[in-house]
Design brief:
Number of helices: 7
Shape: elongated
Low-confidence stretches: 174-178, 182-201
Distance between the termini: 30 Å
Structural class: mainly alpha
Mean pLDDT: 83
Strand content: under 5%
Helix content: 55-70%
Radius of gyration: 20 Å
Oligomer: single chain
Length: 201
């Protein structure tokens, strides 16, 4: 359970990823999605922390040793501390904020799928219904987040399509160190089209 608090695909890293990426996001619709989901991930952190504390607060010394909780207990007693399942403390190195909307949004989609997989693995190992039900809820939210980030990718792609088409001939990708995905914020374009685009999610 501690893994989903401070692990490489946990809720702490997710909230920091999205709330930091939003500053460089050029489109207000996508910035709103990052803000909404980043804030929700903070609430998910609270849920995971509450579950961990409820599971550990009344452990006997024998249960602590038998459950492999002894090394954690020596450092933190039953306090909540974000770390990997291996015991490695949480680090900001677990997430990226590149400032390129396409790059960041695809990382966000991958992060949601990795979190969903971690919840799948936890549900395979846990049989306590009082723990399983909130985990199933959190797993379902990861799927919704993945879909919302897919919408943000579609919005971003459609908004920068005119810019990409004009720049394609003059600036072949990778030749000038310039990202063709970003539309200068001073440039005005029509709202995203609602027709079929590159992404169907």
């Amino acid at each position: 359970m501690l893994l989903q608090l401070g692990g490489p695909d946990g809720e702490l890293g997710a909230s920091m990823r999205y709330l930091n990426q939003r500053y460089a996001m050029p489109y207000k619709e996508c910035k709103a999605i990052l803000t909404d989901i980043g804030t929700e991930e903070l609430a998910h952190m609270e849920m995971i922390s509450a579950i961990v504390y409820q599971l550990t607060r009344n452990l006997t010394p024998e249960q602590i040793r038998e459950g492999g909780f002894d090394t954690y207990f020596v450092d933190h007693t039953t306090g909540i501390y974000p770390q990997f399942a291996s015991g490695t403390p949480w680090s900001a190195m677990t997430f990226q904020s590149k400032g390129d909307p396409i790059t960041d949004l695809f990382e966000d989609m991958a992060a949601e799928q990795k979190a969903r997989t971690t919840y799948d693995n936890l549900l395979r190992l846990i049989d306590n219904p009082d723990v399983r039900e909130p985990l199933k809820f959190l797993r379902a939210r990861e799927i919704v987040h993945f879909q919302r980030f897919g919408e943000a990718v579609r919005t971003t792609w459609n908004r920068c399509a005119p810019f990409r088409s004009r720049q394609k001939a003059a600036f072949p990708p990778g030749k000038d160190g310039f990202s063709p995905h970003i539309v200068p914020q001073t440039q005005k374009y029509p709202p995203p089209n609602t027709g079929s685009g590159y992404f169907h999610m």
